[in-house]
Amino acid sequence: MPTEQTLTTQRKRGPKPGLGGGAAIASPGRLDQMAALIAPVVLIVGLALAGGGFDVSTRHIAGLGVWLVVVALLVLGASSATTLGRPFFWAVGLIGGLALLSALSSFWSGSVELSVIEADRVLVYLSFFLAAFLIAQTGERRQRFAEGLAISVAVVALLGLTSRLLPHLLEVSNSLGSGVRLSYPLGYWNANGAICGIAIALLLWMSRHASWKGVRWACVGAMPAVLLTLYFTYSRGGLLALAVSVVCLLALSRDRLWLLATFAAATVGVVPAILAVQARHSLANNLSNQASVDQGATVLLILIAGTALTLLAFAALRRVERREGPLTGKALEVSRSPAVLRGIALTAAVVAIGVAIFAGGHAWHQFSSRDLYFPSNPEQHFGQISGAGRHDFWRVALDAFGENPVLGHGAGTYVFSWQQLRSINLPVHDAHSLYLEAFAELGAVGGLTVLALVGTLLWTAFSAWRAAPHPQRERYAALLAAMLAFAVGAAFDWFWEIPGLGAVFFLAAGVMVAVRCAQLAPSHRALTERASGRRYGLAVAGLAVAWIAAIALVGPLLVDRELKSSQSAAAEGNFAKAVDHASTARSIEPWAASPYVQLGQLAEIQGDYPTAIADFTDAINREEDNWQWYYWRSKAEHESGSEAAALKDLAHARRLNPLNPEAKCLQEEGWSCG
Q: Taking a C-beta distance cutoff of 8 angstroms, is the pair 166, 296 a contact?
């Protein structure tokens, strides 16, 4: 079985050219490596600057762009240098299978439009995976790609910190005065916290294995800032991502002693800045006043001082490492002892079981409490055990699964189950758990597919790490740590639906699957006719799938843009133009409810109540479980004088969403309740 170095060497073999020929060959190699470095930075930072990519237009534009990259790579011959294997076919099959199942669920779904959008989301992730797989076909490119991944998540974290400490320099809509918790740039504080936790693990790896010495020092210097960004999110999910990724990296790394010491230095370096934030009320609570700006500048200076302290500690660590003293050697021997690691793991397991036995009941009571609040001192949120409604989110998902355990209610339709079955009045669209939501929406078939997908990618990554030599093993430990942090976090939140964070998982997975395929390939399979046929098949199939995906992504993208244009025209008072854009959206996707809703609202504004009622009826025929369409039709019926029909629709809206205060008010106090 060839190692990664052997495969890379084989690809480079050929006649030895002169100086000019060597330069000509080296230049394309450097360009390939630079492209591998830049690709993840452009994708992840671009998605982050667009609000994380949650919006349909942003996500689909990113997906179309990456599919174009996949097509370009295939057309330029990337498939001829690709090593295929069973891990690749399993990964693509599971991702593609999930997309297909989501699309097919539109036949029994409560909303064809929502199910198609969810299928498109998986197609976007498939493009991320394939692009990373095609790029990461040599050891040098894998190194650069992993470095680009680390740089991208660090940049995302630093953008968030800049918006908080220097809001007058980086003015964003969700910055100063927008709320206590840092939601820029991904649009969700827990997502920011998770990407910060992942960034720390990748920066730790870069601190020892980056290609350039200056970059190693820069990564160490960035860690206190990333930790401060995580603090500003006040995210327990961020702490979980930090713990999972760092523990995974330490457990799998041969250099765990130095990594742990570097992490400790960064933690010590950020403590003064965190204490300074806690002592400054305006900054800690993100109040919209000049004090927040002034306090942010002060904390930045303190952070710079803490960063300098971290760098000094790192320099001392490097000096100790170079001296190779007897105590250092003994410490390294102990840290690398399997027996010591097993002892630590066993102790941690015993402690965890003990805590669960003695404090589990109290913790569960707090977690499942319906008392939802955010503490007046935001740092106290780190110590809370409250689930912030997750107990009910998950209960509804399980109840929905019980209603249709085989195929579920259809992709994207959890929101309807939530509105009907909830016990707390929160506007929630997701189960805050990728795995439970998959069971609720796609039944046992979809739920097991998602578990198989995540489990297969993680196992493939672990297998690639285990079979790799040092120092490649360190790189793969970092990528596996990033993947594991996302996979664990997705069990407790809706990270799956934020492509700016999901890209980290699928890009890393693409690299690890490429590594594993190379490890499993026989020595000379690259020259066999069978391998050549497989690669030709990959090119043809890749182009076909890219074409299908492009068609699937363009439709919802155009509909979203037409509806936004319609809303803008209506805001300007140009109703004829607004109707024209909404009608275009309807013609693009006649099965979608949203164009009919927009047309109905436009007709209602203009006093054309019969047309509004007809349009809302068309929307109901496409989403019969959406209480809003019945509610809006009831208002149009009331305005047109059809009181009996209006009350009937209002009652049905109440049945679909019993806790909705708006419909309840109308039901109890009549149309005068406003």
A: yes
Could you tell me the pTM of the whole model? 0.92
Our CA angle for 128, 130, 133, nearest 5°, is: 110
Q: How confident is the model at residue 13 (pLDDT cuts 50, 70, 90)?
A: very low
Q: What is the DSSP string of 578-614?
A: HHHHHHHHHHH-TT-SHHHHHHHHHHHHTT-HHHHHH
CA 56 – CA 614 distance, rounded (Å): 27
d(CA 535, CA 83): 8
CA distances from 272 to 161, 306, 308 (A): 16, 7, 12
Contact 56, 48 (CB under 8 A): no
Alpha helices in 285-337 (DSSP H): 290-323, 326-335
Tokens of 530: 């069978």
Cα-to-chain-centroid distance, residue 546? 22
What's the Cα-to-Cα distance from 519 to each of 84, 121, 590, 650, rounded to whole Å?
10, 31, 48, 62
Determine the angle formed by the axes of helices 19-49 and 499-520, rounding to 10 degrees. 140
CA dihedral 106, 112, 115, 120 (to 10 degrees): 110
- Asked whether 117 and 124 are in contact (CB, 8 A), the reply is no
pLDDT band of residue 24 (cuts 50, 70, 90) is very low
Helices and strands (H and E) in the chain: how many:
26, 0
Closest alpha carbon to 266 in 318, 307, 319: 307
Task: Give first-to-last CA distance, the chain, whole Å.
Answer: 73
Q: Is the dihedral of CA 265, 268, 269, 274 positive or negative?
A: positive
Q: pLDDT for 485-512, tens place per residue?
A: 999 999 999 989 999 999 999 999 999 9
DSSP string, 399-434: HHHHHSTTT-S-TT-HHHHHHHH-SS-----S-S-H
CB 423 within 8 A of CB 370: yes
Q: How many CA atoms lie within 13 A of 226 on its CB side?
A: 30
